[in-house]
Amino acid sequence: MTIHPAILLPLLLTLAGCASIPIGQTGASSTINGVELWKGGPPARPYRVLATISRQGPDTSATYHDEENAVAAAAHEQNADAAIILNEVMTVSRLDITDSRPLLAPKVEAELIRYQ
Fold it and tell me: In order of start, what are the domains of the chain with their CATH numbers?
């Protein structure tokens, strides 16, 4: 039995693509108000994403703690089992009116997930 080259090439490319997909590193979790927060990678178990959210704190805040609590609260409200922290950055929230210097605020982006 011979396989036509037009069929063989897509098949080989598909198999090669599957072989080159790197296995991701599992993250580390902590728990806030009964919701797991994953940082540095997703959980090892299967899950599905319910929503992607972003929380930004006031420019008077210097830590991500309040925004992580807000992510955990949002996960709880949407009946999610956990949240995967995608990004934590300090972002410019506004310019100071007296000297036009940028004021920074912590921002957290996360995926709310439910385990399967």
Answer: 25-115 (3.30.1660.10)
Quote the pTM value. 0.72
What digits encode the pLDDT tens for the residues 10-61?
Answer: 444 444 443 333 356 788 989 998 999 999 999 999 999 999 999 999 887 7
The per-residue DSSP string of the chain comes to ----HHHHHHHHHHHHHHHHPPPPPP-EEEEETTEEEEESS--SS-EEEEEEEEEE--TT--SSHHHHHHHHHHHHHTT-SEEEEEEEEEEEEEE-TTT--EEEEEEEEEEEEEE-
